């Protein structure tokens, strides 16, 4: 960042803005014309040369008019998808000297007074690439190599850049310019104006959604954004260092640089909560990218969506890899309510198989097969066992009779049904069964709490976030629920035609989609837990995990199952961790990455919090987590966090603080409160024209507001998994103002 003398008069600024407006108008006009023309080309069936690349193209790729028209057509389409409220299509300009072979860094090796070289170039940088009819670039896509100097140039390594200009726009209208001078002095014809774009961006009001930072990406952030897509890229840094926003720009960069691979293979972004995905969902579309899938951890497995959190001690049981032993035993165990003895007449003979024989068969079959794919194997082994007890007549005749027996059909249906992975978890609502399967793995207290949490799920009709990874594990163990043959479904299909898809089909393990489920079934909370079909996990070409320090080992396995061919971007800060066993999570994460090469980028400037706010948070975390990664907060406001007393009887101090902050700041305000006060504070939610949210500390991960009221910090430490680390998260969410309310205890 350079210093930017604000010397220009209002007239000069107005002239500069008018000059930039003229160029922006030309870009929009060109896009409009190109869109029409490319539309005609496509209609005429002449678009043979159409390319799937969008944005800027390299010179050697220009093969003819078709390609250019098609490119512009795509650009115009993308432009149409950029919402009006996104800031301008063209946001940057570089005035640079073409140093050619003389292009050397650092600055002291540059030619003397290089900035006076008359051989100059102007480059405009934007959200997408636009060329005129002569193929001359009017705007270069920010992700193209030719745009990289916009982010990489510094006064120490100017790369030939004299002036970097950020254009502030409202839709197609340029409303301001902010310049950074990269050369030691500006030539006479180059005006330097504004206070620098970064500070302008950091001081402005935060909305309820994250914005892109495409105009103000800093050099060290750009390096992480443009790192190669292959392998594992880890982005670390303390609170507010731009890890999330950088990772999202990286997703857009990867789509640009290898569109076929990443758009075709899919890019998945996994974040901690649905509040987080809602918060970031506008960033990629504002960069013209709509194809990235955003999922919260409760939303990774198809058919299940949840944000409900377990109590920390239960989440700990469900998150450790040790829980796999419990799941394995449950998945291999007897289906509750299944017959434990086989009794049937086969070929006129009464056959009985005792429970220990059935158990033996089950174990043997499951040694080599996933349960849901093993019906035929189980039936075959049952026949063998029946023959072994019988042994009269011809074996072949007996086997044939066994195969055709309806009594055996009936038995198989209840002894070896298709099992939905969610049903196995439901079995474990039975504390005795949980004790049996969890013996030696967890203690009785842990198992009782586990079983109770499943009963809670049944009562509430919703899974918890930690359950989702267990269901995914069970799904991999059991295999997909096989749909019954159409032939076998006969009369059920008539029911389906009646629109009564539900329990009847589920009896066969068939698909039930939420939309098709009749209201009568929706009322049943247990049914709600089983709604929808769990299919094969989707695979992705790139997976980006935010707040990676919070993933439990089981969640790493869940995400890893979708990553067999994927490269990764991982974003995190250990000091903000909610998951306590970092070593176990680290091993599970390493397993998910496999042997892929890794690279790490460390971000160390806090762009979110005013320095006074971050200092407060730092003083809380450092005594307890001395190795916390402490960034440098760059912005001072002179306004220190306010500490005040909270009266627990009325909680009116919270309302008073919210009112005060609403006067003080223009934007959003969060009341971050432990669960114990949530119901009493709920009326504040939506206050002051929807500027206020009431939110629990865990759900604030990854989010930010203009101002926050942090309620009862000691109670936050008591309640939250991760204790003081979650308080640290809560204390680093405010950009401009913060109040901390403490009860007198
Ligand atoms: N180069 C930049 N220009 C403008 N704003 C930036 C820049 N880098 C980061 N920011 C802003 O700083 C804030 C924090 O960024 P972000 O949420 O990505 O940080 P983080 O490291 O993920 O934080 P945390 O770990 O605390 O959740 C956001 O408002 C983001 O837009």
Provide an overview of this structure.
By secondary structure, the chain is of the alpha/beta class. The chain has 5 domains: 10-203, no CATH class; 221-301 and 537-603, Rossmann fold (3-Layer(aba) Sandwich), CATH 3.40.50; 312-476, no CATH class; 482-529, no CATH class; 606-743, P-loop containing nucleotide triphosphate hydrolases (Rossmann fold). The chain has 31 helices and 21 strands. α26 (611-621) runs antiparallel to α31 (724-731) and α30 (713-719) packs across α31. It is globular. Bound molecules: adenosine-5'-triphosphate (ATP). It comes from Nostocoides australiense Ben110. One of its GO terms (molecular function) is DNA binding. One of its GO terms (biological process) is recombinational repair. Keywords: ATP-binding, Helicase, Hydrolase, Nucleotide-binding. Pfam families: UvrD-helicase (PF00580).
Strand content range: 15-25%
Q: How many E strands?
A: 21
Q: What are the low-pLDDT stretches, counting only 5+ consecutive residues below 50?
A: 1-6, 45-65, 489-523
Shape: globular
Largest sheet: 6 strands, mixed
């Amino acid at each position: 960042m350079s210093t930017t003398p604000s010397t220009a008069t209002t007239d000069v600024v107005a002239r500069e803005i008018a000059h930039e407006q003229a160029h922006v108008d030309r870009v929009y006009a060109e896009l409009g014309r190109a869109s029409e023309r490319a539309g005609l080309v496509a209609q005429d069936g002449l678009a043979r040369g159409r390319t799937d690349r969008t944005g800027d193209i390299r010179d050697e790729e220009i093969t003819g008019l078709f390609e250019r028209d098609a490119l512009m057509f795509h650009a115009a389409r993308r432009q149409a998808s950029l919402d009006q409220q996104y800031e301008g299509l063209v946001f940057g300009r570089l005035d640079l000297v073409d140093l050619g072979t003389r292009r050397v860094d650092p600055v002291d090796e540059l030619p003397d007074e290089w900035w006076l070289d008359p051989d100059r170039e102007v480059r405009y940088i934007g959200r997408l690439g636009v060329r005129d009819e002569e193929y001359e670039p009017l705007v270069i896509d920010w992700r193209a190599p030719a745009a990289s100097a916009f982010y990489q140039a510094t006064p120490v390594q100017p790369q030939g850049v004299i002036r970097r200009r950020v254009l502030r726009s409202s839709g197609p209208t340029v409303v301001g310019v902010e310049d950074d001078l990269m050369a030691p002095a500006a030539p006479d014809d180059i005006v330097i104006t504004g206070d620098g774009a970064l500070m302008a961006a950091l001081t402005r009001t935060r909305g309820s959604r994250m914005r892109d930072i495409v105009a103000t990406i800093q050099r060290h952030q750009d390096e992480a954004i443009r790192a190669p897509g292959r392998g594992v890229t880890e982005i670390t840094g303390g609170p507010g260092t731009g890890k999330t926003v950088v990772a999202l720009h990286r997703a857009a960069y990867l789509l640009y640089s290898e569109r076929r691979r990443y758009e075709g293979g899919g890019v998945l972004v996994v974040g901690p909560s649905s509040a987080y995905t809602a918060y970031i969902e506008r960033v990629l579309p504002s960069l013209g990218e709509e194809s990235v899938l955003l999922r919260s951890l409760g939303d990774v497995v198809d058919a299940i969506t949840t944000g409900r959190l377990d109590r920390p001690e239960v989440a700990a049981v469900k998150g450790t890899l040790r829980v796999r032993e419990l799941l394995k035993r449950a998945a291999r165990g007897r289906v509750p309510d299944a017959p434990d003895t086989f009794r049937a007449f086969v070929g006129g003979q009464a056959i009985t198989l005792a429970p220990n024989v059935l158990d033996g068969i089950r174990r043997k079959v499951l040694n080599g097969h996933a349960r849901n794919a093993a019906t035929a194997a189980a039936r075959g082994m049952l026949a063998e066992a029946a023959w072994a007890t019988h042994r009269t007549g011809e074996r072949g005749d007996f086997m044939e009779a066994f195969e055709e027996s309806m009594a055996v059909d009936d038995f198989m249906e209840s002894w070896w049904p298709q099992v939905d992975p969610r049903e196995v978890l439901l079995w474990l609502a039975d504390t005795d069964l949980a004790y049996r399967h969890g013996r030696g793995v967890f203690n009785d207290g842990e198992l009782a709490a586990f079983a109770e949490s499943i009963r809670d799920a049944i009562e509430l009709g919703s899974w918890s976030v930690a359950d989702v990874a267990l269901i995914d594990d069970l799904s991999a163990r059991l295999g997909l629920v096989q749909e019954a043959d159409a032939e076998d479904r006969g009369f059920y299909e008539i029911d389906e035609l009646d629109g009564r898809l539900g329990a009847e089909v589920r009896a066969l393990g068939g698909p039930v989609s939420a939309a098709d489920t009749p209201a009568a079934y929706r009322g049943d909370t247990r049914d709600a837990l089983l709604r929808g079909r769990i299919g094969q996990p989707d695979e992705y070409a790139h997976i980006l995990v935010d707040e990676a320090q919070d993933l439990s080992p089981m969640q790493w396995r869940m995400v890893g199952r979708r990553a067999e061919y994927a490269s990764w971007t991982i974003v995190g800060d250990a000091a903000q961790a909610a998951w306590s066993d970092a070593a176990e999570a680290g091993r599970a994460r390493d397993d998910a990455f496999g042997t892929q090469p890794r690279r790490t980028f460390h971000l160390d400037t806090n762009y979110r919090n005013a320095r006074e706010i971050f200092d407060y948070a730092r003083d809380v975390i450092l005594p307890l987590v001395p190795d916390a990664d402490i960034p440098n907060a760059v912005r001072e406001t002179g306004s220190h966090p306010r500490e005040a007393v909270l009266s627990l009887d009325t909680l009116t101090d919270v309302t008073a603080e919210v009112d005060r902050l609403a006067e003080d700041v223009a934007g959003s305000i969060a009341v971050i409160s432990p669960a114990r006060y949530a119901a009493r504070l709920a009326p504040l939610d939506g206050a002051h024209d929807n500027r206020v949210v009431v939110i629990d500390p865990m759900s604030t991960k990854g989010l930010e507001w203009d101002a926050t009221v942090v309620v009862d910090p000691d109670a936050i430490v008591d309640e939250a998994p991760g204790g003081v680390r979650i308080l640290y998260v809560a204390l680093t969410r405010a950009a401009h103002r913060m109040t901390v309310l403490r009860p007198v205890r």
